């Protein structure tokens, strides 16, 4: 009776491994499906990546730089002749620029994306929390306050001829105190936290801190992370002395933005989370005024 031998099952022989590695590294022989033509002849406004979480470094007026975690959207226009965009190139470009995400270089980033993807238009939007250390108004107690900020850029063109649009947006929580409640009440007045948003188009570099200060100065009072009893007294009395409807918040901010010639266009809004109503109050304004 013949003795049966069992075949060993396991790692492929070395020669086979070498063939697999050689095949995987021979990029020129791999089919590029994204670059192939699409027969439906429908161009796309945008194609790219969204909600990419990535560590970045932004300019900080006090510290020089600030490390934060961003959520990023990057896209390009896609002509009808192309089946798709090369998604990995978005990430490669971001990795090259992640240590220099500031409004002075944002146009160059979007322009490089457009050229690298051979597109007519490119769009980049970077959303991130920005932290400012603030001192309480009386005690001087220090603490960090975070602000939701966004850098946005779009570049359009053909070849070396390009036009760019840059904008910055910030979301700022403030205190608003109701003028009507103050006027009709013998004691106190209702107040609430309001969210103000400012999206600005600009001519030259500015600091995020300056835009945030403009927004906070438009409210009944700004917010702090650390308050002692003397500070609580101060912010309560300051808000009472500066009552604001939600409409007032928007108009006060608009007045300040109109005085700053660096901001050629802006969109602002305010939403008050009412403390005595079951709804929120809202107001918005864009400049220059859009046709109704």
Question: Which radius of gyration do the C-alpha atoms yield?
Answer: 27 Å
SSE pattern, N- to C-terminal: HEEHHEEEHEHEHHEE
Tell me the CATH architecture: Roll
Count of DSSP H/I helices:
7
CATH superfamily: Urate Oxidase
Q: Into how many domains do the coordinates divide?
A: 1
Largest sheet: 9 strands, antiparallel
How many strands? 9
**Distance between termini?**
97 Å
Structural class: alpha+beta
Low-confidence stretches: none
Tell me the strand percentage band: 35-45%
CATH class: Alpha Beta
CATH topology: Urate Oxidase
Average pLDDT works out at 88
- Helix content percent band: 25-40%
**Gross morphology:** elongated
Could you write a compact summary of the structure shown?
The chain is α+β, with helices and mostly antiparallel strands and 292 residues long. The chain has helices at residues 14-25, 87-97, 106-116, 179-184, 208-217, 229-241, 246-259, and strands at residues 44-60, 64-78, 121-135, 142-158, 161-177, 191-202, 221-222, 263-272, 281-287. The protein has one domain (39-287): Urate Oxidase, CATH 3.10.270.
């Amino acid at each position: 009776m013949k003795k049966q031998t069992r075949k060993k099952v396991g790692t492929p022989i070395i020669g086979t491994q070498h063939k697999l590695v050689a095949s995987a590294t021979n990029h020129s022989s791999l089919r590029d499906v994204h670059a192939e033509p699409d027969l439906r002849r429908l161009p796309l406004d945008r194609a790219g990546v969204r909600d990419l979480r990535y560590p970045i470094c932004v300019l900080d007026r006090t510290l020089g730089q600030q490390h934060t975690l961003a959520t990023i959207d990057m896209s390009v226009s896609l002509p009808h002749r192309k089946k798709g965009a090369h998604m990995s190139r978005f990430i490669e470009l971001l990795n090259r620029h992640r240590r220099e995400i500031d409004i002075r270089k944002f146009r160059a980033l979007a322009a490089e994306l457009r050229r690298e993807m051979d597109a007519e238009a490119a769009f980049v939007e970077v959303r991130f929390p920005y932290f400012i250390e603030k001192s309480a108004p009386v005690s001087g107690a220090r603490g960090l306050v975070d602000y939701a900020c966004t850098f946005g850029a779009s570049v359009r063109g053909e070849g070396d001829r390009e036009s760019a649009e840059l904008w910055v947006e910030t979301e700022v929580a403030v205190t608003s105190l109701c003028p009507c409640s103050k006027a009709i009440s013998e004691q106190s007045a209702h107040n609430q936290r309001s969210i103000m948003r400012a999206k600005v188009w600009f001519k030259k570099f500015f600091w995020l801190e300056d835009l945030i200060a403009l927004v906070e100065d438009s409210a009944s009072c700004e917010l702090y992370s650390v308050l002692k009893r003397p500070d609580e007294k101060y912010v309560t009395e300051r808000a009472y002395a500066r009552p604001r409807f939600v409409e007032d918040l928007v108009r006060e901010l608009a007045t300040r933005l109109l005085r700053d010639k660096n901001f050629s266009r802006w969109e602002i809004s305010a939403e008050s989370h009412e403390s005595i109503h079951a709804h929120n109050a809202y107001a918005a304004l864009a400049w220059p005024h859009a046709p109704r």
